[in-house]
Design goal:
The chain is of the alpha+beta class and 150 residues long. The chain has five helices and eight strands. α1 packs across α3 (39-49).
Amino acid sequence: MIINDFKIEILTDWHEINQVLLLFNTSFPRSLTERIGDLENYARKLAENAVVYVISLEDEATGFAACYCNDLLTKLAYLAQIAVHHAHRGQHIGGMLLELCIQKSRQMGMEKLILEVDDDNVAAHKLYAKYEFRYAQKASENSHFFEKVL
């Protein structure tokens, strides 16, 4: 799919997902390896259980998101990761990714989308507020859960 010159893909191969994780490893206030550890195993888990979107411009990955929307018992979707490359921030890529995850969660019959965000990630807080995510509860010493009713 192409929107405004951005190419949107869903990745299913763990090798490709691992490459994206490595590319965006330091695009977060705390790196993925610091938070998750073994990115290869995490890529396998995402490939098996999540929907992984990548947005590219001129064959360069500019952003990605990983969302679990497969819990038919609780009907809770979980936005595991969302990142935009530093050079492409301010181009609404984060919003496009978030909208894709919201749409997919609704399509899969989920009733809420939850996510965890670090307290010091100001850009993420602004994005989630724009999309009407509300505080749910404290997740850790440095992060909180937010949720959106779908």
